[in-house]
Amino acid sequence: MIIVMSQSATREQIDNVEKKLSELGFKTHPIFGEVKTVIGAIGDKRLLNTHAISSMPGVENLVPIMKPYKLASRELKQVPTIIQVGDVTIGGNEIVVMAGPCAIESEELFLETAFKVKEAGAKILRGGAFKPRTSPYSFQGLEEDGLKIMASAREATGLKIVTEVVDTRDVELVASYADIIQIGARNMQNFRLLQEVGQTNKPVLLKRGLSATIEEWLMAAEYIISSGNPNVILCERGIRTFETATRNTIDMSSIPVIKDNSHLPILVDPSHAAGAWKYVGALSKGAIATGADGLIIEVHSNPASALCDGPQSLRPEKFAQLMKEFQAVALAVGRTM
Amino acid sequence: MIIVMSQSATREQIDNVEKKLSELGFKTHPIFGEVKTVIGAIGDKRLLNTHAISSMPGVENLVPIMKPYKLASRELKQVPTIIQVGDVTIGGNEIVVMAGPCAIESEELFLETAFKVKEAGAKILRGGAFKPRTSPYSFQGLEEDGLKIMASAREATGLKIVTEVVDTRDVELVASYADIIQIGARNMQNFRLLQEVGQTNKPVLLKRGLSATIEEWLMAAEYIISSGNPNVILCERGIRTFETATRNTIDMSSIPVIKDNSHLPILVDPSHAAGAWKYVGALSKGAIATGADGLIIEVHSNPASALCDGPQSLRPEKFAQLMKEFQAVALAVGRTM
Amino acid sequence: MIIVMSQSATREQIDNVEKKLSELGFKTHPIFGEVKTVIGAIGDKRLLNTHAISSMPGVENLVPIMKPYKLASRELKQVPTIIQVGDVTIGGNEIVVMAGPCAIESEELFLETAFKVKEAGAKILRGGAFKPRTSPYSFQGLEEDGLKIMASAREATGLKIVTEVVDTRDVELVASYADIIQIGARNMQNFRLLQEVGQTNKPVLLKRGLSATIEEWLMAAEYIISSGNPNVILCERGIRTFETATRNTIDMSSIPVIKDNSHLPILVDPSHAAGAWKYVGALSKGAIATGADGLIIEVHSNPASALCDGPQSLRPEKFAQLMKEFQAVALAVGRTM
Amino acid sequence: MIIVMSQSATREQIDNVEKKLSELGFKTHPIFGEVKTVIGAIGDKRLLNTHAISSMPGVENLVPIMKPYKLASRELKQVPTIIQVGDVTIGGNEIVVMAGPCAIESEELFLETAFKVKEAGAKILRGGAFKPRTSPYSFQGLEEDGLKIMASAREATGLKIVTEVVDTRDVELVASYADIIQIGARNMQNFRLLQEVGQTNKPVLLKRGLSATIEEWLMAAEYIISSGNPNVILCERGIRTFETATRNTIDMSSIPVIKDNSHLPILVDPSHAAGAWKYVGALSKGAIATGADGLIIEVHSNPASALCDGPQSLRPEKFAQLMKEFQAVALAVGRTM
Predict the structure, then answer these.
(1) Chain C closest CA to B243's CA: distance in Å?
(2) Which of B6, C43, C121, D303 lies deepest, with the highest CB count within 10 Å?
(3) ipTM computed for the complex
(4) Do B310 and A52 touch (CB under 8 A)?
């Protein structure tokens, strides 16, 4: 860590900061510049209460040198994390596609979609039983009944299932049904929920928050891993920017940045990012070519009757056609699908 | 609501949309433009599953005319909501100041700060017992022990207390101690938590999410009010933008926008927005002059030893001096303090 | 256009708005809702001084139905615009790659890079003679000497050249050397410069502004086209967001959005978007797979000695290797390269 | 400057960076941490071609310690810059208000507004003769005829005049009429234009770009000052964020940040920031209380007939009433008006 002293810092203030750092177990290396002094502090930043330093008189700011995450970092673990969900491998050479409707609405409709996405090549079935909705007046999901429908669909199709949990009180319940537990974008910094899913033995699909930096996203993964669950799958789903032509702005550069800084696999959710089914094909191909390990796509047998996110759902036939196109792109970048 | 049909929409598609709207209980008024057709739909949008319409063939987009929030809206209730917390009135003519440390660290330190902020004129004492921290390695709060310390400080000083809840499982506990329950920025769209605090009888201080639009913020208030608790106090604490000179960008225009669209009171938290104590004075005065109903400010007897957010905490003496300056501004805009 | 009247608008105010719209040549269609009234106005919005309406008493806001751009729109011209630069075709089935250093520093170095990017398959040579730099103390370009070096490189290699103009006074000069004139991100709304290049007969590479919406970007294209020059090539180069892991956030979804709304070709500049050469390969593949018509990439024979943007420049050998990988992706999405 | 070496940097790479820094005239101080090495480099960063270092093998990133601006910095000049425009003082204790219509439309209308804003207490008259408009189909200003009308209004009222220049070719012309030359937000990084106005002897009102950081804004000021013109007045007019309730988000914290880092005066333009006249009063008071040195406000005698930005223009009577309220706030923070 580097402590930058202000231009007007006195020698005494500099000495005090050095003394405080020593007390905290750091070795210090002051560098006296022509205008400002900076102090290099060697030691484990994670042990440091940085606030104690940054509010000392004469301190301008602190510059961290080490990343704040450790367990999620590529520095700690250089081989990619591969997550096994039954016979499905996430983070390996194969591109994995998760598909299904936004919300589970009825058993019949869900099974129909499930069989179709399986036929098209999806390996994981998605569906929401607990829905976090912007409006209290919107459909909030079938809750446990929805989980039961998912379980039947798994039985019937052999697909693994992924579904979201939104409340610490439901983690045990959701974990008892799901093969993968999803943490949605709005809960990415619901730290208690992260700790709870970190205590299950189910892989966690961790969506990026709408205004989360990549570093904060990896810190959220760190919460889960440090609670005991190393099986975190990251999912880029767009960030909030000034552009309104799409619902959110998919940050495609997060893919190589994550690959550079972390060992965790990363998927992309083009449906929620774009908010419009017509852009899902192009963005999915882009995500695969950029290096994503998989996709999570909304598919609905009858988008016009969907109780949630209809405009961004693909019909099963369109999805099946796109899956063939995705495969060609996967092969072009040396991946299987 | 207005349905905009795409340029290439056929007459049949237009008819189908009109038919569907009728089925949903809307009266329809098509307007055939030179290039595009739009359909006006009269009725209660909140009853409508808009997805059913927006994914119909030929539909380009929907334009809502009514606000999505109702109970939080100025249209429903034109007189400002005034919230009584013991003998403290929030949302009236008086500017209310809440002050105290970020986290409760020890009874002695907390009481010291409590007495000093009271002396300076604060009416409500803030302090965190449950802290949502970006890093799992940071201090997470004293939990119930912290609540007990707050209760003692209330007893000792007569100040009312406000503290944050971060888990649905703790709502009952926190409500049993706090006078005002705080929902932090990261939990603004933790809808289950909103519903839980909506079932208590304690006023709720609802901070704006870092990437929440004002409309989404009012929808979060709507969750609380529609769960049975009308006593919501909004709190602007900065939004996330590209600017890094301050931790977040305080959106001062949210004050008049909220006043225009809602009857709820609005406070400003300049400490978290700026992330630096030296900007707290200027921004507080700005908030009062812009029309805020109060402030929530971090004050710590010894910022350099704080376990959390030291750099943004004012020392009690500085706070006391600023309170006098705030009073002059309050008077200049016709408020008392 | 739809005029939304406020809830408290009187009948007289509604009548006045209708009357004013009639005077402006619109046909009006009021729809009286249960709470609010909206007025549909049929006619050419571009003829309307919308300010006249939006500040009339009782008007809440205006909702445009038609896009504000016309000449740049897909609605006007449904076949894609194909731009011929000598024997290079931009906007057709072939992916076109422009490459070269950020700034021209010396003839020798520039020629060396030029031959190498040609050998690797680039069709257009990029290089900056006039550099818009954030700091007045940074290298500002060789100006006309730089243009002369570019012309020699064109002569020597047969590559076409693209270079930026930053001042209306230089448009004639730059146009006399360049095959394609570049408008940089910072000048995307330098409307006088747009009009000037709109009066040349050279194709224009129009970079997206850092905070420009896609609609504003197409309006900038509209300035050029309406000045007489239909040969506009759009170039996505990242937008400014809160994320700092990359210099800017590449908005990959702008590619399908542009294809949906405009007939103009679109390239991607991964070098400026990412600000780091190590991400250029992944983002380039992503751009091709998402549907971009080409790329513009920084290549420098010796990045460590570059006077500008060294960290984002690829070495020629790395560029040559990536070009082969790009080709595989192009083929996978049915494009040639 | 601090050079952070990557974890995998070899001793040889570290030595090479030190050697290169020495060649560039820096004294180096390596600090060997437990995991990473950082190198402190003492010397004038402005002399350094940082690219040469940041792309060297083993370098992870550079951390600047000194601000990139010098002439605009508080470090260089600790007393505030006071700018004299005839008998009007900007940057002193008095709050200065500039007011007038967005665009000059006719002499009669302009004079009418001019007399009214003078009567209300404005000291400077604003008006646009050259208008940068998003659409090529919008009114672009009366050009030199507009300047002549402004000059007459100055003669008639005694007010000083401020008006925008948008093209390097017009700087001499505009400077011959205006008392203060305005650089609009869209031209904040039109560096040639900055250099041109830097060569006049007229004060420059430099608006902040929509996506400009405060540092970039001060760098733009640095362009003007380093060209020979020290009389720069900064103007905050809102930045682009995700929030759409106001046209832009006024960044009120830029006021104390500028005061902390620069000696230049700063005004606020609430009209363009909010885009709605009804928020101008609240934001103006907020700006004064936060520490702004003045305001620039749109006033139009008949907003409903304005050719530009009518919705954000105040009527003269409303402006006159607000001016009294502003004065009370100014006095409360120890300023005159």
Answers:
(1) 7
(2) D303
(3) 0.94
(4) yes
